[in-house]
Amino acid sequence: MILVSSCLAGMKVRYNGTDSLDVHIQKLVEEKKAMTICPELLGGFVTPREPAEIVGGTGEDVLNGTAKVVEFSGNDVSNMYIRGAYEALNIAREVNATFVVLKENSPSCGSAAIYNGSFENRKIAGNGVTSALLKKEGFKVISEEQISDIFLD
């Protein structure tokens, strides 16, 4: 089973109530080859919600306590991101996920790039909290930007 970010399958669960539909991912879900997850909803967030970014590092740093996930208003929501990451990990284990496709740039799901914590649309190389945990636990995590490398070649 492939796990995919819910927003990539067309579900309107992003912080601003939108989706990031990728038709290839949507097709995988429709064909029952993929299952959707939203680590942020699993962590207790609702839609819509404030935008959040990792301040002081990457997802790995949030997991080890040296960085935090902060909403635009300044509220530290690290614990909710960590809770969502562990819920996603439990699901990945339960379904024996072969790999995971998560939304790039997200503080939860980014697998190559995340926003830098300045809320100025600046990105840095790094993992979101869920991507960091899943990779640490041995899961192959890619972004929607890499999906064509696997399915369309």
Q: What would a concise description of this structure say?
A:
The chain is 31% helix and 19% strand. The protein has 153 residues and is α/β, with parallel strands linked by helices. The two termini are 20 Å apart.
Topology at a glance:
Elements: E1 2-5, H1 23-30, E2 34-37, H2 39-42, E3 52-55, H3 59-63, E4 68-71, H4 78-94, E5 99-102, E6 113-115, E7 123-125, H5 129-136, E8 141-143, H6 147-151
Structural account:
By secondary structure, the chain is an alpha/beta fold. The chain has one domain (2-151). 31% of the residues lie in helices and 19% in strands. The two termini are 20 Å apart. The relative contact order is 0.19. The model has no long low-confidence stretch (mean pLDDT 95).
Key descriptive features of the protein:
two-stranded antiparallel sheet; globular; 153 residues; single chain
How big a fraction of the residues is strand?
A: 15-25%
> What distance separates the N and C termini?
20 Å
Strand-and-helix sequence, N→C?
A: EHEHEHEHEEEHEH
- The tally of structural domains comes to 1
**Reading side by side through the largest sheet, how are the strands ordered?**
2-1-5-8
- Which structural category fits the helices and strands? alpha/beta
Organism: Paenibacillus polymyxa (Bacillus polymyxa)
Protein name: DUF523 domain-containing protein
InterPro entries: 2-thiour_desulf
Pfam families: 2-thiour_desulf (PF04463)
